[in-house]
Design goal:
Largest sheet: 13 strands, mixed
Mean pLDDT: 76
Radius of gyration: 40 Å
Distance between the termini: 100 Å
Number of strands: 40
Number of helices: 6
Low-confidence stretches: 1-40, 291-303, 356-362, 409-452, 638-654
Helix content: under 10%
């Protein structure tokens, strides 16, 4: 039994959108005519004949139907491949316009052509052709074909038995079938059909036929093989953002950045590619979006739908990328680490580029970059041979002042030293307890004699000396930066800066070379900044002649992170700040003070040399015996200094 059928021609509808705009000349509308051979498959369980589908069975939905029409009514218009302008672009525009703007029949036909040209098997969803990875690959593969690899008008033999395709009635699908003499399509031993053919480029010319489209109906005919992959060589990587420390240790409750990198190492431009930043542990790395918007003009950004199989990804779509280019998006991706993330959790990220040399869907993935999560466990400070105290009174005064010792919020304690304050010790755990336990000491009865401790008023002593004597009893300092190893000669070793704004102190990299005691005094209107290491020589001289440095400030003494060692006695009527930059990378080190800190308020802000599962020291303060042997001027009342130490080592107070 055989039958003949036809479908009325439909008008072609275009919104002239997509890859490019074009105008359509009048088209000759041709309907596909065929009659089913008598002995053909009766169900979709039969062996496949192409793309994993049996004959008469829909490519997308595998429905069985022996009635149908052209894949695209009207076929391929004559202006596609007419040698005027860019024939390849005309073809891409034509198919893409149907994909975006046609009716259901036209959209299905366009997607069928795209996916079979890419080699996708039957059962692939229609939406795959709209996926930017797939669509870009199709565009790039077609664009990358050499000028001799596409034949726009070739008379292809059309014998009966040729594998043909058609649009199915009732299913809005496309299927494969074998031509037969009674199909009505005009097959025969001498028949030919005007077609577009795509070759593999073997031998530098057209090469072997891979894919053929019959122009009158846009039916792919013959066995459809995927067209060659494009020659692009794209790679992707993801680098740590500028806020991730070089040791790759990150902290819970913080937000960090990553930098996507895309590289094209060939001389061929790509018209589209997509980079995914794969998040391999999304339970402890929350996507926080992009820091500065999409990476390229008109680029799309989305989360999810990861092609690489990662649980979550950040996806960047690049609409075009030039040859021999590298594009880095500094801090382009933002992720946050939940506050409850356990110590030791490892968070890993990688980058995958989905490129146009996919046949179908191959990719290049860069190496994983991993970061370890640790809460910082700082011991804060370690004091040797003395205690650390803030507040109390100036000796000789009757009114007590209450001031605080402020430490890092996660500070823990060692049992080598005593911390005390006439006010509060903020954010400091006693007896190695968690850092959220604050101890209030010294201003209540029964907590020892800390409240009675006084500080000698060294500023008053230095001011009296300044007002009652004149140079050369002391040497004036103007504002600016001073290398203590290169100070001008001073008979008294006393240098006084009065009302000059600020002075910065350090010693040269070669080390301190003055073999005598020096006192720096900053009176009213002068702030002291220690911006580098201050290091004493250790000459082979009697103790009474050993060098020493004292710094007295009426206001504040600020120590920068670059100063990791300070061999000096520091006294301030304001605040001594041990790391001026605060919670930044500049403070990720230890400050060693060989002397003492004495101030109205102490701010311990060092973070230690790194975070990790073991404690690191922020400040280590050692009271040296030099204070008794050859102390700097104004520091030479050992009995007064003795009020602040010699109380014996005690465990931290609770």
């Amino acid at each position: 039994m055989s039958w003949l059928f036809r479908r009325k021609a439909r008008g072609l509808r275009f919104l002239l959108l997509g890859l490019g705009s074009f105008s359509l000349p009048a088209l000759a509308i041709v309907t596909q005519l065929f009659t089913a051979p008598v002995a053909q498959a009766a169900s979709c369980a039969d062996p496949p004949i192409a793309a994993g589908r049996a004959d008469w069975c829909g490519y997308f939905d595998n429905g069985f139907s022996q009635t149908g029409d052209s894949v695209l009514l009207g076929g391929i218009p004559g202006w596609v491949g007419d040698g005027i302008g860019d024939d390849t672009q005309d073809f891409l525009d034509f198919i893409n316009n149907y994909r975006l703007n046609g009716d259901a029949w036209q959209q299905t036909g366009a997607r069928f052509i795209i996916l079979t040209m890419m080699g996708f098997p039957g059962g692939t969803p229609r939406s795959q052709a709209d996926d930017p990875f797939t669509f870009d690959s199709w565009v790039n593969n077609v664009r990358a074909m050499g000028p001799n690899q596409i034949r726009w008008h070739v008379q292809v033999p059309f014998p009966c038995g040729t594998l043909n395709t058609y649009h199915q009635d009732g299913f809005n699908d496309d299927a494969f079938f074998f031509e037969a003499p009674n199909s009505g399509d005009g097959c025969g031993p001498l028949a030919t059909v005007d077609s577009i053919q795509f070759g593999d480029g073997a031998g530098g010319g057209f090469g072997n036929v891979l894919y053929t489209i019959k122009r009158s109906c846009a039916n792919p005919i013959g066995n459809p093989n995927p067209i060659p992959k494009s020659p692009y060589n794209l790679s992707a990587d993801v680098q740590p953002g500028t806020d991730i420390p070089s040791n790759n240790i990150i902290q819970p409750g913080q937000t960090y950045h990553l930098s996507p990198v895309l590289t094209n190492t060939t001389n061929v431009p790509t018209l589209g590619s997509t980079v995914e930043i794969n998040n391999h542990n999304p339970a402890y790395a929350d996507n926080a979006g992009t820091a500065a918007g999409p990476p390229v003009t008109s680029a799309g950004y989305q989360v999810g739908g990861c092609k690489q199989g990662a649980p979550e990804c950040w996806s960047f779509h690049y609409p075009g990328f030039g040859p021999n280019q590298t594009n880095t998006q500094p801090n382009g991706v933002l992720f946050s680490v939940p506050a409850g993330t356990p110590d030791g959790t490892v968070l890993c990220f990688s980058a995958t580029v989905w490129q146009s040399n996919a046949n179908p869907g191959s990719q290049a993935t860069g190496p994983q970059h991993c970061f370890t999560v640790y809460r910082p466990h700082y011991p804060g400070i370690i004091g040797s041979n003395g205690d650390v105290h803030a507040g109390g009174t100036l000796c000789g005064q009757t009114t007590a002042s209450q001031h605080s010792i402020n430490l890092n919020s996660n500070s823990n304690s060692y049992n080598e030293y005593v911390l005390s304050a006439s006010g509060t010790i903020a954010g400091y755990g006693s007896n190695n307890s968690p850092g959220n336990t604050a101890a209030t000491l010294g201003n209540a009865s029964g907590l020892g004699n800390y409240y009675s401790i006084c500080r000698p008023d060294l500023v008053a002593e230095a001011t009296k000396y300044f007002t009652t004597t004149a140079p050369p009893s002391w040497t004036p300092l103007a504002g600016g930066s001073y290398d203590l190893a290169s100070l001008p000669a001073s008979p008294s070793g006393i240098y006084i800066a009065n009302g000059v704004g600020s002075i910065s102190l350090h010693t040269s990299a070669a080390g301190f070379s003055i073999a005598k005691k020096i006192t720096i005094v900053a009176l009213s209107g002068t702030t002291v900044t220690i911006d580098g290491t201050i290091k004493l020589n250790t000459p082979n001289v009697p103790g009474s002649q050993a060098p020493s440095v004292g710094i007295i400030a009426a206001g504040d003494i600020n120590i920068k992170g670059a100063a990791t060692r300070v061999d000096a006695y520091l006294f301030a009527n304001g605040t001594i700040n041990t790391c001026l930059e605060g919670a930044t990378a500049a403070c990720l080190n230890e400050l060693d003070v060989n002397g003492f800190l004495m101030a109205n308020a102490l701010s311990f802000r060092r973070l230690g040399p790194g975070t990790g599962p073991t404690a690191t020291v922020g400040e280590r303060i050692t009271l040296t015996g030099q204070i008794y042997l050859n102390p700097p001027t104004f520091f030479d009342d050992a009995s007064t200094i003795n009020l602040l130490q010699n109380q014996g080592e005690k465990p931290p107070l609770n």
